[in-house]
Every structure is written in structure tokens, then in C-alpha cells.
């Protein structure tokens, strides 16, 4: 399973680091992503990583503020979130996929097969 943690409440401009315990998913053949869903909105891709080719990809809305990383030794994927804004408020989900054919699809929800339960981030 995928298990997220690290969410919480923070003031605008603050930082949080989300963790995703991803035992069994963090080998070089897997794609890992972070998604978020705000009330009344669609789930959207935030960041993705493919460690097999050292590829990371970000939504325009978080570029320069969020960083995705993967620690294979600890089977954990992280999302470091800096300069948080109220519009970053959402439930954040970790996801995994065994095959994504192109970089342009890395933030597409339907490319991912495995999902965690989510962790809430609130920015005020």
C-alpha cells in the first residue's frame, strides 16, 4: 500500500514536507506521483518522478516551489512544498504506476493504478 503523511495546517509562505511510504513501488521501473484534490474540484497532478531515468515533472502552478524526490533505501517518496499559498489547500495523494509512455502523461490521473488514502494540507 501507499501511505501518505506530513500534512497539516500552515500559514501562507510556510513549508511542509509530505511523505509517501511506498514499499514495493520505489524501484526504478515505477513512476510515482503526487496529486491533489480541493473540494469541488477535479484531482490534479502536482509532481511526478521516474527514478529509472532521473525524470521529474511538475505542474506549472507549483514549479519552483515544490520538489519531488525518492529515497529508494527507505521506500519513500517526498514532496517538499515551500512558499505555500492558500490555493495549495487540498487533500494530497500519492500514486504509483508501472508504465507511462511519455513525459506529457506523467501528471495524468488515469495513468496511475495505485493510490494512497491522502493527507490534508491547509494553507491560510
Structural class: mainly beta
Distance between the termini: 31 Å
Helix content: under 10%
Count up the helices. Answer: 0
Q: Largest beta sheet, briefly?
A: 7 strands, mixed
The chain-level mean pLDDT equals 94
Task: Briefly say what this structure is.
The chain has strands at 3-5, 8-10, 16-21, 31-37, 44-50, 55-58, 66-71, 76-81, 90-97, 114-115, 119-123.
Walkthrough of the structure:
There is one protein chain. With 124 residues, the protein is mainly β. Helix content is 0%, strand content 46%. It is built from no helices and eleven strands. The strands form two sheets. Strands 2, 4, 5, 6, 9, 10 and 11 form a seven-stranded mixed beta sheet that branches. It has a four-stranded antiparallel beta sheet with strand order 1-3-8-7, with no helix packed on it. The protein is globular, with a radius of gyration of 13 Å. The termini are far apart. The mean pLDDT is 94.
What keywords describe this structure?
mainly beta, globular, seven-stranded mixed β-sheet, 124 residues, 0% helix, four-stranded antiparallel β-sheet
Secondary-structure map with pairings?
Elements: E1 3-5, E2 8-10, E3 16-21, E4 31-37, E5 44-50, E6 55-58, E7 66-71, E8 76-81, E9 90-97, E10 114-115, E11 119-123
Amino acid at each position: 500500500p501507499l501511505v501518505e503523511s506530513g500534512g497539516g495546517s500552515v500559514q501562507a509562505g510556510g513549508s511542509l514536507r509530505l511523505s509517501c511510504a511506498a514499499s514495493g513501488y520505489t524501484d526504478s521501473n515505477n513512476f510515482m506521483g503526487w496529486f491533489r484534490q480541493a473540494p469541488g474540484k477535479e484531482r490534479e497532478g502536482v509532481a511526478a518522478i521516474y527514478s529509472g531515468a532521473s525524470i521529474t515533472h511538475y505542474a506549472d502552478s507549483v514549479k519552483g516551489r515544490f520538489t519531488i524526490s525518492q529515497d529508494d533505501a527507505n521506500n519513500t517518496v517526498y514532496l517538499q512544498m515551500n512558499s505555500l499559498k492558500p490555493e495549495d489547500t487540498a487533500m494530497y495523494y500519492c500514486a504509483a504506476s508501472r508504465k507511462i509512455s511519455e513525459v506529457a502523461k506523467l501528471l495524468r490521473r488515469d495513468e496511475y493504478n495505485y493510490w494512497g488514502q491522502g493527507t490534508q494540507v491547509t494553507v491560510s
